[in-house]
Design goal:
Strand 3 and strand 4 form a beta hairpin. By secondary structure, the protein is of the alpha+beta class. Helix content is 38%, strand content 21%. The chain is built from 5 helices and 9 strands; from the N terminus they run E-E-H-H-E-E-E-E-E-E-H-E-H-H. Helix 1 packs across helix 2.
Length: 140
């Protein structure tokens, strides 16, 4: 039997390849590895412009594009890790490109403007509002 090596550093970093689903979880793009796996299978993650598979190897220097909801992150991999650490440690694993930051800020501003311009109902219609709706529908 061989003795198991214990790594003193809980945020195990290496310069080798790491599974992309593990790295996305360690870098805190997804809360669980299962969510990362599902996103990769759904085509939401690309490595260097090509669709990724959950077991694809990730090395420092790769460019990753991750789509989460309406946000698209484009990041350069600085380091790889299989262990999930603090949020501060996770941010050292990658660098987001300037173009990606600017695009996300523009899209967020557009969503805010659209949301503010959309009228929101003040609640359930009262008797007078219901009567107005009925008349409107009959006169059409």
């Amino acid at each position: 039997m061989t003795a198991r090596k214990h790594n003193d550093d809980p945020n195990k970093r290496s310069n080798g390849k790491v599974r992309i689903d593990r790295w996305l979880w360690a870098a805190r793009f997804f809360k669980t590895r299962s969510l990362a796996h599902t996103a990769i299978k759904g085509g939401k993650v690309e490595i260097n412009g090509a669709k990724a598979k959950p077991a694809s190897g990730l090395t420092p220097g790769d460019r990753l594009q991750v789509t989460k909801g309406q946000q698209v992150f484009e990041v350069d991999i600085d380091a790889v890790s299989e262990k999930r650490g603090s949020a501060k440690d996770a941010q050292t694993l990658y660098t987001e490109t300037e173009a990606s930051k600017q695009r996300r800020e523009r899209e967020a501003e557009a969503r805010r403007i659209t949301q503010n311009a959309t009228p929101t109902p003040r609640g359930r219609p009262d008797r007078r509002d219901r009567e107005a709706l009925r008349q409107f529908k009959q006169n059409r």
